[in-house]
Amino acid sequence: MSEKNSLRLIQGTVDMLILQALTAAPNHGYGVSNWVRERTQGDVTIEDAALYKALHRLESQGLVESGWGRSDNNRRAKFYEITREGRHRLADDAATWRRYAAAVFRVLGPTPEAT
Amino acid sequence: MAIRGLPRRFRFPWRTVFEIHRDVDDELAFHLDMRVGELQRQGLAVSDARREALRQFGDLDVAKKEIKAFDRRFESRRRRSMMWDELKMDARSAWRSLRKRPAFSGIAILVLALGIGVNSAMFSLVDMLTMKPLVIVDPEELVGVYSRDTEQEDRYRSFSYPSFRDIREQNDAFSHLTGFTLTTVGLGQGEITQRTMAGVVSSGYFDTFGVPPTRGRAFTLEEEIPGAEERVVVVSHGLWQRHGGRDDFLGSTLRLNGRPATVVGIAAEGFTGTTAMFSPEIWLPLGMFDSLGSGFGAQQIQTLDDRENYSLIMLGRLRAGMTAERALPGLQQLAIQLEERFPKAHENQTIHLAPMARLGISTSPTSESLMLVPAVMLLLLSGAVLLIACLNLTNMFLARGESRRSEIALRVALGGGRARLIRQQLSEGVLLSFLGGAAGLLIAYGFMRVLVASITTAMPMGLTLVIDPVPDVRVAAATLIFCIVATLLFAFVPAWRQTSGDVFAGLKDHSHSAESASGRLGRLTSLRGLLVVSQVALSMVLLTAAGLFVRGAMAAAEATPGFDLENSFLVELDTGLLGYDEIRGRQIYQQTKERLSTLPGVKTVGMSSLVPYGAVTSTRNMRRPDQSDEDAVNAHRYVVGADYFDSLGLSILSGRAFTETETWSEGGTPVAIIDRPLAQELWPDEDPVGRFVQQVTVPPAAPLPPLEVIGVVPGVAHDFNDEEPPPHIYVAFGQNWRPGMHLHVRLADGAGSAEGVQAAMLRTIRDEIRAVDAGLPVLSLRTMLDHRDESVFMWIVQAGGKAFATLGALALFLALVGVYGVKAYITSRRTREVGVRLALGATPSLVMRELLRDGLQLTFTGLAVGLLLAFGVGRLLASMLYQVDSGDPLVFGIAAAVLTLSALVAAWIPVRRACRIEPTQALRHE
C-alpha cells in the first residue's frame, strides 16, 4: 500500500500506539517509529515530527518517563519508558478503541476480504 | 528514571535552557542518523538517504522549535512544582522535628516571640512617628509656607488673613494654597459638652491635601470671608462613626461653644491634615474665626481681617513641574511687594518654604531630626534584644547539634548532601521564626494597645489620638524581615558548622577523650564565650538604661513645685465652650467658688489661669519703668483670684494678696503680685511693694499701663525641669478676664487623705458644678497629685522607664537563659572529669568552685564591655533623663550586681547538678 493511501489516524490514536510500543521495553523515538511500521506492516505511518511531539507531550503528562542511555550501536540516545499511569491510560484507551471499532464493524458488516 | 541495564549519569534535578535545547537537538539528530543509516543499507546514496529521511520526518525546523518551546514550558512547570513539593516536605519534616522536642521548641519560640515582638512593636511606633504615609495625595508636592524675619534668620511667624489672600491670588507657584489655625471649642451633644481641638481653615483646605470630604462638601470661599459667620462644620470620619455613622448625620446640628452649627461634610477616613498620631476632630471655616473667642495662639482682640493679626499657618501644593527651589524667588519677590504696600505689617519679612512637620503644627519649620535620635535608639535597643535572642538560639542549636553530631556525621559520610542538611536545619529555623514572628505580632498589637491607652490619658486639651493598634501591612512586612534576619543569625551558623569539618572525627569520636576534645572544644568555647560575653554586655546596657529612667521617674514622682500637693483638688472649667460672655462667665466662677468653699472639709478655694506641671505656659517680659526693654525679665504670668496663695499654702512675704473686689470686678488701679525670684531680679535690694512693673509689648501691640506691685510671694516651680523657681507675676482675675480657669480646692489638713474620702470629694465637687450650670463641661477634675502624675512630662519619663525596664528585664531573662545554657552544656561535657576527681577524693565544694570560676571570667568580661557601652548609651540618653546623671554610680552598681548575681545563679544550677552526681555514675556517663 502506498503512503498516499495510508490511514489518517484519528486524533489520540498516535498516543495509544506509542504507549503500546513502549509496553514491552523502554525504547528511543526511532525504535518506536520502526515498531509501529513493522507491526502495521506499513499500513500505518506516523510522521516522525508528530511522533516526537507526542512523546514529549506524553512525558509532560507523566505517561512516559525519559532518560539518556546507549542504543544498540552504542550511540547516546534518549529512551522512553512507560509509567504505571501510562499503562492505565493505554488500557483505558485500548478498551475504548476496541468498543468503537467493534461498533463501526457492526455497521459496516463483515469485511469483504473475509468473505 | 532508571533505564534498566544502562548507566545513569549524575544530573541536576532540572535542566538549563541550553541543556533543554541540546537534548532536543541530540535526540532528533540520533533519529535522523539512524534513519539515514537504515536507508543506506537499503541501497540509497548518502545524499538521497538524507533527503528521504528528512522527508519522512516532516518539517524538522518547525518540529524542533515546537518541541523546544514545549519542553521549556514543561521544565519550568516541573521545577516550580518540585520546589513547592520540597518546600512542603521541608516544612513537614521541620514540623515533625520540632514536635519531637517540645521543650526545646517551646523555649525557642518564646525567646523568638519576645525578640521579634519587641522589634515589631518598636517598628510600629517608630513607623508611626516618622515614616508611615499620611492620608495625603502626592505628599511630596506639599510644602509649608513660612514668614521669616530677614534680620534674624531663625525667627518665624504666621500670616494674617489679608496677606494669605494676597499670596494666594498673586503666586504662580501653587495649584492650591490654604491657611489654617487651631483652636479649642466646646462641642455639645445633648447635655454634654466636651472640649475638642478644631482646625479653623480656609476654603480649599481639603483640596490642598487632595483629600476632599467623602460625604457632603468642603468649605466655600463665602464661608471663609472674615465675619461671614456661616456656622458650618466638617467632622472627622472617626467622630461621625462614634456618633453612629448614620447618613442623616450630614445636615444635623452640633452645638459649638453653645451655639448651633450644621454638619456639611465628613472628612475621609484616616484624614488627619499634616500631622501623624493626633488630629483635630472638627474643621470650621475661617469665617467663624472672630466668634470663636478663646483662641489658641491667636491674639483674641484682633479680628481676622486685621493685616497685623498673624494667626494663619500656610500650606501650599506646588504646581505640576514646580519645585520649592524654583518657586522661592517668585514668592520672595511677592514678599518684597507686600512689604512695600504694607510696610508695618510686613517689615523685614520674607517667605521661606520647608516641609511640614509630622508631629506638630508650628509657625516655624520644625526639624524632625530631633525624633530621629530616640527613634534610632529604640530600634537599636530592640535590635539588641533580638540579637541576644538569636545568640541564645544559636547556642541552643549548637548544643542540640552536638547531641546529633554522630548522626549528622554519618549522614554526611553516606552522601546525605551537606546542602540538604543545611537546608533542613534552616527550614526548622524558618519555621521557628515564623511561629515566633506570629506570636511577636500579637505582642506588637498588645504593646500598641497599651501605648494608645497610656498616651490617651496624657493627651492635653481635647486632642484626639488617631492610632490604630492593629498591625498593618508595613508592620507585617517588617516582622517578616525580622524573622528572616533572625533565622539567618541563629540557624545558619550552627548548620554550617555542624556539617563542616572532620566527618570521620565525628564518627569515631563518640566518647570525648580529653585530647581529641581539646581542639574542638576550645573552638566551641570561644564561640560560646562570645555568645555569653555579648549577651551579658547587651543586658548590662539595657539594664543601666532602664535604671536611669526608673530613677528619673522616681525623682519626678517626688517632685513638688514648692508647695504641698496633698489634700488638694484641681478643677478645670472653660465658660467659653458654652459661648458665655464675660458677665455670665464671672457669675459662674463666683457661684462655683462660693458653693465649693462652703463644703464641709474644704479650707479654701483658689483660682488660677495656669497650673504648675500643666501643659500650658504663658510668659511675658517684665521690667522696671526705668529699665530698657532689653533688660526685661521673662516671667510666668498667672491670672489668679483672691484665695489662690492660701489654697496653695503659700504665705505672703510682704504686702497683701488680691482683694475680693480685685478678683471679681474690672477697673481700679492695675495691680500685680510678684514672687521672690522676680523681685530679686528687678529690685534686688529693696521692697518692691508699692513700686510699678512694666509689661513689655511687641509692636504693633499697644503699650499697656504699668502694674502696681501690691505683694511678694515665695517662688514656685512651673515645669518639672525648673531647678530653681523661675520668676512669676500674678495678675488679678477681675482686671484680666479669662473664660478658662482652674479652681484649686484645698481641704483642711487630714480631711481627705483616705482613698474613699477623695472619691467622695471628687463626686461632690462635680455635683456642685452641675448645680451651678448643668451644661458646663468639667474639663478635668482630679487631685493635684494625679494632675502631676498624668502630665505629658511625667508620661514621657514613666513611659521611658517602663519601656527600658521591659527591654532590660527581657534582656536579663534572655542573657540568663544564655548563661545557663552554655554553662549547662559545658558542665555536662565535663561530667566524666568531675566523676574522676570526686572518685579520687576531691571535695564537691572544691570542684564546684572551680567549675563556677570558669564561667565567671566570661561574665566579667561581658560586664566590663557592657559598662563601657552603657556609659556611651547613657550619654546619648542624657537629654531624655530627669535629674539623674547619665553615669549614675548607683544605677551602674545595681545593674552590675543584679547581672552578676543572676549569672552566678544561672551558672550554679548546672554545676550543682554535676557535682551531686555519684562518681560511679559519672564514670559510666556516655
Main sheet of chain A, how many strands, which sense, barrel?
Answer: 3 strands, antiparallel
- CATH topology category name of chain A: Arc Repressor Mutant, subunit A
- Radius of gyration of chain B, in angstroms, nearest whole number: 38 Å
Give the percentage of residues in beta strands of chain A. Answer: 5-15%
Question: How many helix segments of chain A?
Answer: 4
Task: Provide the descriptors you would attach to this structure in a database record.
heterodimer, A: 115 residues, alpha+beta, Arc Repressor Mutant, subunit A, 3-stranded antiparallel sheet, 4 helices, globular, B: 926 residues, 6-stranded mixed beta barrel, 6-stranded mixed barrel, 15% strand, disordered N terminus
Description:
The complex is a heterodimer of chains A (115) and B (926). In chain A, helix 1 crosses helix 2 (29-39) and helix 1 crosses helix 4. Chain A has helices spanning 13-23, 29-39, 48-60, 84-108, and strands spanning 27-28, 64-70, 76-82. Chain A has one domain (3-104): Arc Repressor Mutant, subunit A, CATH 1.10.10.10. A 3-stranded antiparallel sheet of chain A has the order 1-3-2. Chain A has 115 residues and is an alpha+beta fold. Chain B is α+β, with helices and mostly antiparallel strands. Chain B is built from 26 helices and 24 strands. In chain B, helix 12 runs antiparallel to helix 13 (473-499). Chain B is globular. Chain A binds chain B through residues 26, 28-30, 33, 45, 47-50, 52-53, 56-57, 59-60, 65-71, 75-79, 81, and chain B through 1-4, 6-9, 23, 26-28, 30-31, 33-35, 56-60, 62-63, 66-67, 70-71, 74, 77.
